[in-house]
Amino acid sequence: MQLGKLLRFGLPVLLAIMLLAGGCSAYSSVKQWAGYGSSDEDEETVPPEAQQETVMIDGKPYVRSKNPYWLTEPQAPEYLYVEKGREFTSAQQYLVNSLADAMNKRQGKGAGKTIPPDKLQEMVRSEVDRILREQGLGGFVSQGKGGDQGIFGRAVAVIPDLETSKSYDGLNRTLAMALGSALGKTKDLKVSPPESVQEALRKVTVAGKMTLAPNIKALGDVLGVQGIVLTGIMAPEGGGQGAMVMQVYDTFTGLQEDAIVAPGGAGGVKPDTVTKFAQDNYLRVAGNLTRIAWFGRVEFVKEGKVYLSLGQTSGLKVGDRLKVVEPGKEVVNPKNHSVLGYTADVPQGEIKVTELLGNSGAVGLALNGGPFKANDKVKAVK
Known about the structure:
Elements lengths: L1 H20 L3 H9 L5 H4 L11 E4 L2 E7 L12 E5 L7 H18 L8 H19 L18 E7 L8 H15 L5 E3 L2 H10 L9 H11 L3 E8 L8 E8 L4 E9 L7 H21 L4 E7 L2 E4 L12 E6 L3 E3 L6 E4 L3 E11 L5 E8 L7 E4 L2
Parallel strand pairs: 4-5, 4-6
Antiparallel strand pairs: 1-2, 2-3, 6-7, 7-8, 9-10, 9-16, 10-15, 11-14, 11-16, 12-13, 14-15
């Protein structure tokens, strides 16, 4: 009974304390206490024997590094592939640290010694999933690249990458469906149904690779989403295992935010392998999608009213003020053609939300500027 109360009421407080105090020592201590090895082993992000292991995706190197969900998700692999130089600390990891701190304190009183390690893992996993579903990811991750945007919801889509070999098309669709289903559990994400994705793929003429920024933006406009996840299966080469990939894109800029790669396994890529890959990593994907800077689109304008393609599920509230902007222009280095960034958005006017049309639509009135048109971009007024 006391442990149940601790999990239900103590975690948010412990999380706040942990965030202020920082540190992974509690997690290392509870792993030592549970018999999982010394803290020295945990400090290495990339083990020495794996430092040279890389996978190239769209010209970017991905290295094998420590899986943030290892020991907190059942059967989660100890290592996975992430973009070189980028590290991720999940919301789940923060909660694990707070629980570990509580268990360390209880251990000092003799109470924590009775909890088996496998039971502790299950308690952490189920409690984290419950909190993220009920309270929303917005309570545990910062919103947007520039800080809290004040609007937590995001509309997203999961799309199988057309670059995947036809022989793996079925597996790739299985991966996309498994990820979409898992993301649908989170409060702050509205996932486009598969039929909407198929309709968008029929409407949009994809020129070149789907990963190109113009294709991502066009798909985002048709679907009315702020983030897109492209799933893919990489066929084995030279006796290798193959790999599974999930790439997160911001549809405002068309740029990649993150990519998660995992090997297919000794037996090759199989349906249960891709399903497990999606389930093991959906919280990381959800965290990346929620951190995308919030924006929306004008659906159409009629009789002086501005209709928006995003509603309550995407975080809008009656009374919210939105600025209509023309997206900044891409700045490209003329020598190597690399993208340096974007110029500032150009303000076009402001809209005030006057009515919500259920979960996926809203109505607003122009406060200034205009006239506005379909697919004009809107952002929250800070």
